[in-house]
Design a protein that fits this description.
The chain is of the alpha+beta class and 322 residues long. It is built from ten helices and 16 strands. Strands 1, 2, 3, 4, 5, 6, 7, 8 and 9 form a nine-stranded mixed sheet that branches. A five-stranded mixed sheet has the order 10-11-14-12-13, sandwiched between helices. It is elongated, with a radius of gyration of 21 Å. Bound molecules: adenosine-5'-diphosphate (ADP) and magnesium ion (MG). Keywords: DNA damage, DNA repair.
Length: 322
């Protein structure tokens, strides 16, 4: 079982940032209002995600670390319209197989929290623990027992960069949740809950906010909303291109093409637009996250989606409403 978990871990936990993604998604699924992320040494030494969500009952703590035991999917049909972010029931098991993991949780009304710890295949029994409410998952020494994988890790700075990017992706999409990020004891981000525009300005920069349009276009059951930089805007440094389908960050050729064309029409060769855009679509019309680590989508009616994104963005960019 450990071997199976370690192999699966390779799929799910490519690097600290992929573990962070899974933990953040679990906190979101648990209806957290506040999520605190603490990293040490790029997340390799330590990666902790604490939330104030619904928590896990004591009897289910060990089960939460067991593969597939918790999968929320009853039938394959459910895959078609998965709404919660986590649905495979293997993230915690996979992370635990390649790290020293501690899971502490306290349901509302409990007198204290409970904790289970796992290292490789060893899982401890339940122990009482201290935690105000919600759940805290602490992952230490990623790949301590799989040196071959550890070799593939890049420098601390690079792994940290991936973690911060993952954090940014999620924090941009859930501005109703407040987030903090700490690295090596330093506060990096403190993001109170609030409107998307404010969070985008914080995470993507005031220059972006000042040089962008706010859009909200609808056609039938489709909606595209968010912020997009005006043609000619140059952020310098890394691209800030965030696109979400039903709340999930995606990177998709069809979408990228539609956006590129919308900009190209207005300013020939605008190669580095910045945006945080959210596409809402009937879940039946799209398959998201075909594979654990991939962020691809498959649309049932790709042509219609392309046209809608192109027209909505083109319209907003040609007639800024601010
Ligand atoms: P999945 O999210 O696909 O169900 P995971 O391995 O990520 O699988 O998590 C296993 C289970 O543990 C979840 O289904 C959930 O019941 C519980 N869980 C994990 N993290 C949290 C959390 N932060 N708050 C509450 N429950 C959690
Ligand atoms: Mg999950």
């Amino acid at each position: 079982d450990l071997l199976i978990n370690q192999i699966a871990a390779g799929e799910v936990v490519e690097r600290p940032a992929s573990a962070l993604k899974e933990l953040l998604e679990n906190s979101v699924d648990a209806a957290a209002n506040e999520i605190a992320v603490t990293l040490m040494q790029g997340g390799i030494k330590q990666l902790r995600v604490a939330d104030d969500g619904i928590g896990i009952v004591a009897e289910e703590l060990a089960l939460a670390l067991a593969r597939h035991a918790t999968s929320k999917i009853a039938t394959l049909d459910d895959l078609e319209s998965v709404n919660s972010l986590g649905f495979r029931g293997e993230a915690l098991a996979s992370i635990a197989a390649v790290s020293r993991l501690s899971l502490i949780s306290r349901r509302r009304g409990e007198r204290h929290a409970w904790k289970v710890e796992a290292a490789g295949s060893d899982v401890t029994g339940l122990q009482p623990a201290a935690l105000e409410s919600g759940t805290a998952v602490e992952v230490q020494d990623l790949y301590f027992n799989t040196p071959a994988r550890r070799k593939f890790l890049k420098s601390e700075a690079t792994e940290y960069g991936h973690c911060e990017e993952m954090f940014r992706r999620l924090a941009l999409s859930r501005t109703d949740i407040s987030f903090t990020l700490q690295h090596n004891g330093r506060k990096i981000w403190q993001l109170p809950a609030g409107p998307m525009e404010r969070r985008a300005a914080t995470l993507l920069g005031d220059e972006f906010a000042a040089a962008s349009v706010i859009l909200d276009e609808r056609a039938g059951s489709l909606r595209l909303w968010g912020m997009a930089s005006l043609p000619g805007f140059s952020r310098g440094g890394r691209d800030a291109q965030y696109f979400y389908v039903n709340g999930r960050f995606v990177r998709d050729k069809l979408i990228a093409h539609a956006i590129r064309e919308a900009y190209k029409d207005i300013l020939h060769n605008d190669r580095h637009p910045a945006f945080a855009l959210f596409l809402e679509i009937d879940p039946e019309g799209v398959d998201v996250n075909v594979h654990p680590t991939k962020i691809e989508v498959r649309f049932r009616d790709a042509r219609a989606i392309h046209q809608f994104i192109y027209h909505a963005l083109n319209k907003a960019l040609s007639a800024p409403i601010r």
